């Protein structure tokens, strides 16, 4: 089992920055694909950014150039640096770790609110 705990969310004005962290415990996640997802009220959960075990990253178009995903395998931690935040980035941000077809873990999420 893998437990994921997100932190770093909060309320920021438009144009501000936040750095989210996701601490994994239970087992090492260095071989897992790690990702950040978000879910806004009344909307479906959507992927924001992912990073493979080899460090290959992928981003949804709406955050390219503004968000940076990274991982520290030594600390079993995932990060999301969010710059130039917009009101439409407001959502609950969730951390995900997955491997193979049956290993798929989620955190509880951290709220990010961007005021206009």
The H-and-E topology, N to C, reads as: EEEEEEEEEEE
> How would a textbook summarize the main sheet?
7 strands, mixed
Distance between the ends: 40 Å
What quaternary form is this?
single chain
Strand content: over 45%
Strand segment count: 11
Helix content: under 10%
In short:
The chain is 0% helix and 55% strand. The protein has 116 residues and is an all-beta fold. A hairpin with a 5-residue loop joins strand 5 and strand 6.
Description:
The protein is 0% helix and 55% strand. The protein has 116 residues and is mainly β. A hairpin with a 5-residue loop joins strand 5 and strand 6. The termini are far apart.
SSE inventory with pairings:
Layout: E1 3-7, E2 10-13, E3 18-25, E4 33-39, E5 46-51, E6 57-59, E7 67-72, E8 77-82, E9 91-99, E10 103-106, E11 110-115
Parallel strand pairs: 2-11
Antiparallel strand pairs: 1-3, 3-8, 4-5, 4-9, 5-6, 7-8, 9-10, 9-11
Q: What attributes characterize this protein structure?
A:
116 residues; mainly beta; seven-stranded mixed beta sheet; four-stranded antiparallel beta sheet; 11 strands; 0% helix; 55% strand; globular
């Amino acid at each position: 089992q893998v437990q994921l705990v997100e932190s770093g969310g909060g309320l920021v004005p438009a144009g501000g920055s936040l750095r989210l962290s996701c601490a994994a415990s239970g087992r090492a996640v260095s071989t897992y694909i790690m990702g950040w997802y978000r879910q806004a009220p009344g909307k479906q959960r959507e992927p924001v950014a992912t990073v493979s075990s080899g460090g290959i990253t992928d981003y949804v178009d709406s955050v390219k150039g503004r968000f940076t995903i990274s991982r520290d395998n030594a600390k079993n931690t995932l990060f999301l640096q969010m710059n130039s935040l917009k009101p439409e980035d407001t959502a609950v941000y969730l951390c995900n770790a997955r491997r193979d077809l049956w290993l798929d873990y989620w955190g509880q999420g951290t709220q990010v609110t961007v005021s206009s």
